[in-house]
Each structure stands twice: as C-alpha cells, then as structure tokens.
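Standup notes
- DV: blocked on the single-chain target, sequence here:
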Amino acid sequence: MSVWDELPGQEHAVAQLSRAVEGGNPTHAWLLTGPPGSGRSNAARAFAAALQCDAGTGCGTCKNCRLVAASSHPDVAMVTTENVTYAIADVRELIAKAQARPSGGRWRIIIMEDADRMAERTTNVLLKAIEEPPPHTIWILCAPSPADVLVTIRSRCRPVSLRVPSREAVADLLVRRDHLTAEQAEFAARISQSHIGVARRLARSEEARLRRDTTVKLPLRLRSVSDAVRAAGEIVEISTTEASSSAQERADAETAALRETLGLEPDAVVPPQLRSQFKQVEESAKRRARRGISDSLDRSLIDLTTVYRDVLVIQLGAETELVNDYLGEPLRAYAARGTPTDTLGRIDLISRARQRIAANVTPLIAMEALMAGLIPRRS
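- DV (later): unblocked, structure below
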C-alpha cells in the first residue's frame, strides 16, 4: 500500500507532492492547509515518507517508509503543541534540530502540526530558519487555512491545499487499511462527516461511539433549565474524564521512563535534587489535560452541530442525507416543533460556545449557557 493511499480524495495535492519528490530537489518549506478532517497530518507524513523512501516513490513498504509511518524515523520530527500556543523555547529547539545533518535519510524533515497555534513573536523566531534553511532541511507546516499563518511565513512556503474527502473515499480507505466491513466503514465515515481520523476512532472504539451517541441525543431531551444544567455537566464530565485519563496514562509512562533513565526503582523515593524533573512531567500532564478537555469539548460541539444540521435539512425538505440517520424519527419529531429560524439560531449558539471555550471561558459555564439556549421554546 503506497503512502499516498492514505490520502483519499486528494488527487490534486498528491500529484503536486509526488512531482516534488520525483524532481529530487523539493522546495525547502511547505504549507499544507485544509479544514479539519482533510488529513493535513496524514499528508505531511506521507510526503515525508516519500521524500525518505528508498525507491523515491513513497512505496510504503521499505524501511524508511515504515519508520516514518511509525513516527520513529530519526530524521523526521513530527511536532505538535500541548499548550494553547507553541512556546518560543520549543520553536528554538526545533530550529537547532533543523541545523543537524540527516543521520541516515536523504533529508532532515520538520513537520509542525497546528502551525496556526504560533503567536506572532514565536513566528518571528521561526522566520529566518524557514527563509534560509540548511540545504538538507525541509519544513512542512500544517494549518486550517493560509490566513491562519502570518503572511511573512506564508510567503516563504509552497502552498498545498487539501479538501475534506468524500464519504465514499473515507469508507473505502477504512475497508482497505483497517479491514472494516463496508457497513462499519460507511457508518463511521457518515457520522464523522468524512473526518479521516475521527472516522477511524469511531469505527474501532465502541467507547468513542457511545460518547458521541450520548452527546448527539442531549438536545432531544432538553425541556427545562434543570435539564440544561444536567446536560452541561454531563458533556463536560465526559470530556474531562476522557482527556484526564489520556493525560494521566502518558504521564505515568513518562514518569516510569524517567525513573528508568535515572536508575530509580519504581517505588524508590525521589531525591530532592531530581524532584524538579518529575515536577516538569506533572506540569506537562496538567497542560495536556487542559488542552485535551478543550479539544474534546470542541469535538462534542461539532457533533452537536450535526444534530441541528439534520434538523434544518428536515425542516427545509432538502434532498440531502442525514448525518445522524439512525436518529431519523426522533429528529423528525424534534424538527416539527420548531422553525428553520430557530434551528439556525441554535447553530449560532453552538458556534459562540466554541469561541468562548477557545478563549478560555470556564467550560461548565460556557456549556450551561449553551444548553439553556438550546431549550425549545414553548408554543
């Protein structure tokens, strides 16, 4: 399976990246943009694998392709921030890494996911490194749109635009790559709205499907302010539990690895002179949990938006398939109790809630305000 097979529905972008690989002298800086679900990270990884490929094509089977796919290639760094924005110290560390010659591959490749999370001051630190990189270094930045990256960076990168693939393309990928049944793949592709990563997670995890099912059914049982308060608490609890559990698992693994590196037994008392290193692990776990809660809530709000999208489709009589087709009858009953104007207003409320959470409003307060606004008006 070629590395390019991981990019369903991206024929134009694949052709552009393939030509760069075949030319043998690719541009030193790239900006991959596309909406959530378009596969920016997958495209960056596939491009890096093709650049390092023994056959020079992205065969997907050689040692270099497999190492990149496993995120363990010594000359390919995939970097993402666990904070709201990239820290300047992190970017300076990347710049230093970019100066080193490749240890075995053809190129030293730095992939920055979420490049839109750089503040202007941080971006200025990166600017010179991208403008005048060593001849063996290639930067690949990923962002939702070109406008999310400062023009000084944007103008020095070669742009590649991605789009959200079709549902059929995502379903086909899940069948070929993950060996799902056609029915499982189609369901996951539809309820994820063709978001490749989310579709795979929903197809493979019953727990993830149950969390989503709980979320999308919340609006259907809102009748009073007390219902709204309970629903807000429920959705925040789901997001918090998921994010905290994931962050704690990683923190435990990092702590165990640090103890092994320092020669400490699992139950040994940490000497005072080493406590600062363990403190850093704890602080990183807290930052990951905060970021994880925010990201999980945002995903839940996107799922809620699909409910009102379906309601609007029903109210307008549009010949469009429902995202949450398995909730068809409850959604039709809900749609009959309101108007398209009501539904558009609720979609706007969800959008505002996403903006508030991104601006660090307390999640429970933002969700309680949202759920109260979603209560159907009595006729």
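- Follow-up: The mean pLDDT is 87.
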